[in-house]
Each structure stands twice: as C-alpha cells, then as structure tokens.
Amino acid sequence: MNIYDISKEAGVSIATVSRVLNGSSSVKPVTKKKVMDIIEKYGYTPNAFARGLGLNSMNAIGIICADCSDIYLAKAVYYIEGNLRAGGYNTILACSGYELEGKKSALNLLLNQRVDAVIMVGSNFVESEDGKNEYIREAAKQVPVLLLNADLDCPNVYCTMCDDSKATQEAATYLINSGKREILYLYNSKSYSAIKKLTGFQTALLVSGMDIDKNRVLYYDGSHEDIEGVCDFLCKTCSENKLSFDSVLAADDVLAIGATKYAKKMGLKVPEDIYIIGYNNSLLTACNEPELSSVDNHLETLCSQLVKTCIGTLNHEDIPQKIIFSGELIHRGTTKHI
Amino acid sequence: MNIYDISKEAGVSIATVSRVLNGSSSVKPVTKKKVMDIIEKYGYTPNAFARGLGLNSMNAIGIICADCSDIYLAKAVYYIEGNLRAGGYNTILACSGYELEGKKSALNLLLNQRVDAVIMVGSNFVESEDGKNEYIREAAKQVPVLLLNADLDCPNVYCTMCDDSKATQEAATYLINSGKREILYLYNSKSYSAIKKLTGFQTALLVSGMDIDKNRVLYYDGSHEDIEGVCDFLCKTCSENKLSFDSVLAADDVLAIGATKYAKKMGLKVPEDIYIIGYNNSLLTACNEPELSSVDNHLETLCSQLVKTCIGTLNHEDIPQKIIFSGELIHRGTTKHI
DNA sequence: ATTTTTTATGTAAGCGTTTTCATAGTCGGT
DNA sequence: ACCGACTATGAAAACGCTTACATAAAAAAT
C-alpha cells in the first residue's frame, strides 16, 4: 500500500495525495475529503524512509545520555521524550557510558541516523578540559546540539541549565548560617558542572571568611549507585585522616544517603549532630531516614525549556543560546530549618 | 557527499561502492581497499533514509515503556538499549503512560517509523482482560513483538519473563515458614503479571493450609513513586479496618519501603516485630533501614535474552516463543534469614 | 465577452541507496 | 589456443515520497 494505490483509488495524482498528507498547499475540500476517506479506509501511513529521503529529515531527535538507568538521567530522558513527542518528534535514544569513546560513537550513530538535532543529557558531557569537547563542536556543524545542565560556548550549541554553582553556594551558605563549621563536601564526577558545584561550595566558605580544608573535600570514585560503597569509602577515608565533620554537602543524593548511613554507623544523630544535604531532589530523598534535604534543580522545567529551544531552532526561530534557571534547597529531615 | 561522489573518485560504479559498504558479494581486494580509502578520506556514511528505502529497514527497534523514569523500567530500557546497540540496532524510544490510548498511539508511532521490531517493556502491557490486548496482536502482524515480563499467546509475539507467580509464592512461603501468619500483601497494578504475583501469594497460603484474608490484600491506587503516599494509605486503611499484620509482601520496592515507614511509625521494629519483602531488588533496597529484602528477577539476564530473541527472529532463526526465568529472594535486613 | 489573476491539480525530476541482470575479464583444463 | 566456469564489475530499475514547474480550470477584473 503506497501513495500510488491511494491516488489511483481516489482518482487523483500522487502529488495531491502528498499535499493532503502534508496539509501544505491548497487542496479543494472535496478532494481532500475523498483522499482522506481512502487513506482511512486502508489505514495507510506514508513510508517514513521515502519521506525522510525527500525531506532529508525523519522528525527524529537523538538523545544521548551516559546511562539512562541513572535515576536522575532517566527522569530527564522521560521529560524530554514526552515533550518531543508532544511536539511531533520521535526520540532515538543512545546510551554512551561515561567514557569519551562511548560518547563519540553514540554521537556518530545518531548523526548517521540523520537525526534533526542531538540532545545531550547530563553535565558529564562537557569536560573541563576543553579539547575533549571537540566532538561536540564537530557535531554542531551538522545539526543543532542541545545540552542539558552543561555549558559550552559554540555556535549551534544551545545550553539549558540550572546554575549549580549558585545553588551549591546557597546550600553551603545555609549550613554556615546554621552554625556549621566543619562541612564535608562530597562529589563523584569531574565534569564541568561538577567543578562548578565545587566552586560554589568554596565560594560560600570564602565569602563567610572560612578556610577551605582540602581534607573535607572528598572525591568518591565508585559507582554512581553504590550507596554501601559510599559509606565504606567514608569509613575508610575518615578513619585514615581522623576526619570529623558537622555537616555534609553532597553533589548527588546517592552520596548524601551514603553519608547518612555512615553518620548513623558512627552513632551520630541526624539532624541533631549533623546536617546532610543532597543534590537532585530525587525519589531517593523519601527513602532516607530522616528524609533527605536536597537541592532541586527543576528538572521538569529545564527539560521542557530545552525541548522548546530545540524545536525553536529547527523552525529557525531566534533562540537564546543559554538559558539558566536557579536551583532551590528543599528542606526535609536531614536539616533543621530555622 | 553521496555514493556517486565516492564511486567517481574511486573510478568504480556505485554498485561496487555499495557492495563494499555492505560487505555482501565479492569485490576484488584491491578495489575494496581503494574504495575504503576514499570513504575514510571523506568520512562518508551512507544516507540512512535511502538505505532504509532500499532495504525497507532502518536497523532500528522500537521500545515502548509506560514510564522510562520508573526506576525499574529505566534499568530495563538501559539493558535493552545496550544489547541492541551491541547487536547493530538503534533504539527508538516511546513512553506511553499507563493508559491504553497512550499505548496504542505510541505503538502506531513506532510502526509508522518502520521499526524492525517492537519491544514492550513492563508487565503493564498485557491486560488481564484479553480484548484490550488486540492492539498488540495487530502490531504482531506487521513486525515481531517482544514482551518483557508479560505473557501473551499470539503468533509473532515473543515473551521473556520471570516467573513472578512462582517467585512470589516462594517469598510468601518463606514468610510462612518463618512463622508469620498475618501476611499483608500490597500491590499497585492490575496487569496480567500483577495478578499472577497475587495468585502466587494466595497459592502459598493455600498450600500451607492458611486462609486468605481479603482484608490483608491491599491495592494501592496512587503514584508508583510516592513512598509517603503508600505510608499514608496504610495508616488510613489499617486504622479504618483495625488491621494488624506481622509481615508485608509487596509487589514492588516502593510499596515495601512505604510499608517500612508505616511500620516504624507504628512503633514496630523491623525485622524483630515484622518482616518486609519488596520486589525488583532495585537501588531503593539500599536506602531503606534496615536494607530491604527483595525479590530479584534477574532483569539484566531477561533483557539480554530478550534482545537475543529479537535479533534471532529478525534473522529468521527458529526461536522459542516463551522463555521463563526464575526469581530469587535476596535476604537483607528486613527479614531474618534462618 | 475578454483578459488577468488565482486556485487546484498533474507531470516528472529528484532524493541516495540496494540489487537484479547482463557483460567483460580471468583462469584452469583440455 | 579454446572453451566453460567463475569472478568482478557496471547499468539501470526499484524503493515511495516531496516538490518545482507546468497547466487547466475557475474567479475576478475589465
């Protein structure tokens, strides 16, 4: 069943059928109805390949994320997919892993599929070391590239992000204002955005006239999901360095929950003895005991804006290259809000 | 840059270039190298649409899931995507929501994209009421349909699943053998598979000569992620019905964690006073306190097998229509293993 | 009534592959 | 040296659509 069959049955040319399908130029209402009826009768749908060949577009957007099973990235993919679908676009998904090679090959895969644009989900896509971002610049020469929670100056690259630096700074400032003086900062990534969060933390300390104690800035090198691993890591590191702290600011909820476990193991009471703040405000916050205070970065809004930007550029609208939202500290049981 | 440009530069016909690209029939090694060199020189990649038109396949598989931000479904999507990519297939993702209409339209979307096969992720895709599964049967007339954790008898539909009924029965039997007599069963879906789990639970009771107390089989109608909601629901329902129980078997980790919250709220000690068992063995088990015992259904194995089946059918291999794995109760802090 | 403008439709040329069929070239066997 | 059997290659059709251009029909203007 192809466009010829339809045109034959309707007694019109294939051009007319095509016009009906695309609703583009003018077709007499009578003709339109006649064609529509036949189309419905046979349940005909145009061949996407042929259409793609003609239009050089498949109405598909590629999404790359490192790991779509990550609780935070999965949410992002979900929101983005929904918005894209609502906008008439399909979503081609590629998970790349966290290594550069994987990212490059996932990107090539999508470009070969002739996606109309590429959305890269997650701060881990922009490296602090700029040379490593060359592959993104290359891709941007072919199609618009949209970054979620990452920042890269490059033509045809559009960034939608939360100001993680500011949000982290605010969270840290809250801890300081609550009288905390021994804040442990926990992070698990060295992406551009991770570095910015760290900077935000340090800025808060400096602004308050506090020293930055390098021992209290810990990088956890394990799996992004391994809560037990975080706890063990803290046990080991803290006993080795005889490290104490009165609060934890984590770059991620998993880290924060690991820290909660550790604190309890040490016999500390949360939040009486120690405050703990996570980041992402994920489902996990509800599992913790007490429930985890966490920085919310309005993921749903970010994603909806990102897709708007995406579709906007595809329609050749004039679109700002960077859109920055603010984060917000959500107070729960692991901090006492004054 | 298209196949003509390559052929011209290499001084051969486009047919030869095509043959080199597809590695199909015989091409003289010298010619092959010559063509390859030119292809690499220009970084040429064939146009996916044109190829799709010719082959009537884009090497893409459609994945439908209700909600790819669900912690369990996201994992499934992740494993499937990885396996598909390793097998040379792309993944087109469509999230359908839990309503029938959404499922139908997501499916149509994918079929219009001319995917080579459709993978439906999640037990919620097969309804107990068989009429509602007609759209799956229709789809199966066009392309192979692969179901993860769902069961449907239909030509060209292939099911890969965990025997949830048996696994649930085993978990319940464990509780009974541990001396529990007032087991609360908690569930939140009425999919085919959810019903089978419930049946497994009931079978365990019957086999042990226990009565099925309908009051202790609770259906939670709220969001799949709302731990607090589950807790509230239990507070309300249990106080209304003056319900007590000495153990909880939940169809899902979120439900189980909600139950843990409730138990603690009531002043019960876990596991001393009450045992709790979840289902899916997700990341959440590690957040609970004590850590949640949960039924693992070997998702990674399921997914890898499902993709094997998928690629097998596409290669017209002889493939069994149903593959059933066993689940396994993983013991952690919410049960005392004897 | 005639000319001009507008609207509706058809014709045919791409789009970039794959693949069938035909043909030229190569090689071993006689 | 010649024939048959392969092997390597090319020419061209097919895939199903979009769209620029051409044209016929209808409407508006004179």
Describe the structure.
The structure is a homodimer of 338-residue chains. By secondary structure, chain A is α/β, with parallel strands linked by helices. The first copy, chain A, folds into three domains: 3-46, 434 Repressor (Amino-terminal Domain); 59-162 and 299-327, Rossmann fold; 164-296, Rossmann fold, CATH 3.40.50.2300. Helices cover 44% and strands 16% of the residues of chain A. The first copy, chain A, is built from twelve helices and twelve strands. The first copy, chain A, has helices spanning 3-10, 14-22, 29-42, 48-55, 71-86, 100-112, 134-142, 164-177, 192-207, 227-240, 253-265, 299-314, and strands at 60-65, 90-95, 117-121, 145-148, 157-162, 183-187, 217-219, 247-250, 275-279, 293-296, 322-325, 328-330. A six-stranded parallel β-sheet of chain A has the order 2-1-3-4-5-11, sandwiched between helices. In chain A, helix 9 links the parallel strand 6 and strand 7 (217-219). In chain A, helix 1 (3-10) crosses helix 2 (14-22), helix 5 (71-86) packs across helix 12 (299-314) and helix 6 runs parallel beside helix 7 (134-142). The longest helix of chain A is centred in the first third of the chain and has 16 residues, at 71-86. The termini of chain A are far apart. The model of chain A has no long low-confidence stretch (mean pLDDT 94). Chains A and B meet through helix 4, helix 5, strand 2 and helix 6 of A and helix 4, helix 5, strand 2 and helix 6 of B. Chain B binds a DNA duplex (30 and 30 nucleotides) through helix 2 and helix 4.
**Shape estimate of chain A:** elongated
Which two protein chains have the largest interface (Cβ within 8 Å of the partner's Cβ), and how many residues from each?
A: A-B, 48 and 47 residues
Question: Beta-sheet strand percentage of chain A?
Answer: 15-25%
Going by CATH, the homologous superfamily of the largest domain in chain A would be Response regulator
